[in-house]
Amino acid sequence: MSTPYLPHCFAASPEEHTLPVGNYAWCSCGLSADGVFCDGAHKGTTFRPTIMKITDQPETCTLCRCKRTNTAPFCDGSHINL
Questions:
Q1: Which of 11, 14, 49, 53 is spaced 20 to 30 A from 66 at the CA atom?
Q2: Is the Cβ–Cβ distance between 66 and 11 less than 8 Å?
Q3: Residue 45 DSSP label
Q4: Percent above pLDDT 70 for the chain
Q5: Are 65 and 49 in contact (CB under 8 A)?
Q6: CB proximity list for 3: less than 8 A, separation 6 or greater
Q7: pLDDT at 57
Q8: 36: closest CA among 70, 75, 6, 79?
């Protein structure tokens, strides 16, 4: 049985952002330059960004950078097990 490809762990800690209303593409592959927002580095892989929509007012989010969260794009503490 083959092992599924895991995304690159950019960092073993989350990053907090206060985001204004708008759409954001969270990096799911871990290859983007900042490890949080997609910059197209996933090209040639099976990974695609997760689209976040902030609709009503600015929102403070703790975003995953280890790419092991079960609540993407938000940190669920999975980095503790790395």
A1: 53
A2: yes
A3: S
A4: 95
A5: no
A6: none
A7: 97
A8: 75
